[in-house]
Amino acid sequence: MTTALPAIGNDPLAPGALDVPGGAAGGLAAPRKLSRKQKAAIIVRLLLAEGVKLSLADLPEALQAELAQQIATMRFVDRVTLKAVIDEFVAEIEDVGLSFPGGLEGALWVLDGTISAATASRIRKARGIVFHGDPWSTIAALAPDRLMPVLEEESVEVAAVLLSKLKVSTAADLISRLPGPRARRVAYAVSLTGAIEPQVVERIGRSLAEQLDAQPARAFSEGPVERVGAILNFASGATRDEVLQGLDEEDAAFAEEVRKAIFTFANIPARIDPRDVPKITREVDQAVLITALAGATGALTPSAEFILEAMSKRMADQLREEMENLGTVKPREAEEAMNAVVNAIRELEAAGEILLIADDE
Fold first, then answer.
1. Is 288 helix (H, G, I), strand (E, B) or coil?
2. What are phi and psi of 75, to 5 degrees?
3. Which stretches of the chain drop beneath a pLDDT of 70?
4. What's the pTM?
5. Using an 8 Å Cβ cutoff, are 298 and 350 in contact?
6. Which of 44, 190, 222, 285 has the fewest Cβ atoms nearer than 10 Å?
7. Angle formed by the axes of helices 286-295 and 313-326, to 10°?
């Protein structure tokens, strides 16, 4: 559980006083007054002793430093004093009906998903707001296409820091899109990131987050090549061939990019690592898998054989026997089953569980 420390009064570290009967801070026996700094220190120490995970990082650094200094000067607090501080703290909490985040950035965080990203971006620009929060969490949530310009245009050192902070599967996808020389320079720069200080990585993250946040929102999360490729992935073979032929006549370069984006059952031997086949087959119902394998005839036979050969011999023999028992599969049923296998592969790839081998590899 993560708990933010509520204020005692208006400011948890502001000067103030409380008469504490029958007890004292600092181990004294006589009653004395406690400042708000001391009360805040007592509450923080108590919560930490109870194993509560506090989130004080959003406090101004000056207040965090004052809190640490106050805790460093205190020694002992008797039970009467502790109870008095807790009672006041609980009373303050119970009197709070509703709290609002501090600052406009906090308001935008609360409204995230309620107002459009374009509106939030315009508000930030108009007010000159500096990005707050964990920048790398924000960056990691962005689509790879939005991160590609950073790898292509920024220095290799910045690109190396970016790759180092991303999920391995995402970083591998991004670096595979770079030209060979650039990819090699960035990969070498990654080897030098061990000496970078944490505050430098933080500054790079904030700079990139502000830069990426300033980009205009797009109506579609994916580019036209990916969208057309995804549509044709699940179209019938005849429709797919007809559309690609038409694209060749209209824009041959676009048609070629779409072909690279398309992943069908026929692409399995060229783009799937044999070691990933067990993961894929576990995601597909066995009856559907048998139908797909039995229906993969003609030009699709190599895909079925590739899947069977990547399994254990016992499992492959069992599936071959069931394929023979199934007999001839109707083309429509075979295509639906093969699309189910392709869909499982796409879902695993999107989740980072497997990586598709690039066509040019």
1. helix
2. -125, -70
3. 1-32, 58, 97-106, 108-110, 112-113, 117-118, 120-133, 213-222, 234, 358-361
4. 0.40
5. no
6. 285
7. 70
Two tokens at 188? 């070498």
> Cβ–Cβ contacts within 10 Å for residue 245, how many?
10
The closest alpha carbon to 147, from 63, 96, 49, 215, belongs to 215
* Distance in angstroms (rounded) separating the CA atoms of residues 263 and 346: 9
- Contact (CB, 8 A) for 16 and 36: yes
The residue type of 145 is D
Helix (H, G, I), strand (E, B) or coil at 317: helix
* pLDDT tens-digit readout, 251-291: 888 888 887 778 888 889 988 999 999 999 999 999 999 99
Identify which of 204, 356, 225, 215 has the alpha carbon closest to the alpha carbon of residue 280.
Answer: 356
pLDDT single digits (tens) 35-45: 888 888 888 88
Q: Which domains does the chain have, with CATH numbers?
A: 2-95 (no CATH), 101-129 (no CATH), 134-213 (1.10.220.30), 222-262 (1.20.5), 265-361 (1.10.220.30)
Return all residues near 269 (Cβ < 8 A) that are at least 6 apart. Answer: 302, 303, 306
80 contacts 23 by C-beta, under 8 angstroms: yes
